[in-house]
Amino acid sequence: MEINKLKDFIKFMDDNNLCELEIEEEGKRIRLKKNVHEQVVSISPAVNPEKLVKETPKEKEKENILEIKSPMVGTFYRAPSPGAKPYVDIGEIIKPGDVVCIIEAMKLMNEIKAEVGGEVIGIPVNNSEPVEFGQTLFTIRPLQQ
After folding, report:
1. Is there a contact between 98 and 122 (Cβ–Cβ < 8 Å)?
2. Where are the domains of the chain?
3. Contacts for 85 with CB less than 8 Å, ≥ 6 apart
4. What is the pTM of this model?
C-alpha cells in the first residue's frame, strides 16, 4: 500500500471520529488503530432530601459497623488447621491484635490480626474460599464505651 493511501485512510479516520479502521484490498489487510484514552463518566443518583433528614435506627446502627478487610489476595481459612476450632465466631468479642483468620498466599500462611475491637456480627466469606485484596472478611460492631 502506498503512503499517500495510508494518509488518506488516517484523514478519513480523523474526519469521521473513528478509533479503528480495518481494510482488505487485493489480498492485503491493514488495520489502523488510534491510541485513544478512554474517558470515564460517572453518574450519581439524585439525593432524596427527605433521606438526608430522616434516619431510621437501623441506618444509624449501620454507620457504626466496622469491617476487617483482606490485606492480600489468597485463600481464607477460619482455623489454624483442618478440624481445629475457628479463631473467631459470630457473637464473639475480639480486641485489636487478636488473630481472626489465616490467608494463604503463595504457599505462605499469613495470620490476619484485628485492628479493631468489638463483637463479630458477620463473616461473609466461607472457609477455604479465595479472597481479593480489600474484600470484607468480618463485620464488627464496636463495643459501647
Report:
1. no
2. 3-33, 57-141
3. 79
4. 0.56
Instruction: Give the CATH class of 57-141.
Output: mainly beta
Cβ 96 vs Cβ 40: under 8 Å? no
131 vs 76: CA distance, rounded Å: 6
Residue 2's closest CA among 26, 34, 36? 26
Count how many residues are written for the chain.
145
Residue 85 cell numbers, joined: 476450632
Going by the DSSP 8-state scheme, the letter that residue 36 receives in this structure is -
Asked if 61 contacts 91 with a C-beta cutoff of 8 angstroms, the reply is: no
Q: Which three cell numbers stand for residue 136?
A: 470484607
Q: Express each pLDDT in 60-115 by its tens digit.
A: 455 689 999 999 999 999 999 988 999 999 999 999 999 999 999 988 999 999 98
Q: Please give the Cα distance from 111 to 103 (Å, whole number).
A: 7
Q: Please give the Cα distance from 109 to 103 (Å, whole number).
A: 6
Tell me how far apart the alpha carbons of residues 79 and 99 are, in angstroms, rounded to a whole number.
Answer: 10
**Cα–Cα dist 72/106, whole Å:** 11
| Contact predicate 41/35, CB 8 Å | no
Bridging pattern class, strands 74-77 and 66-69: unpaired
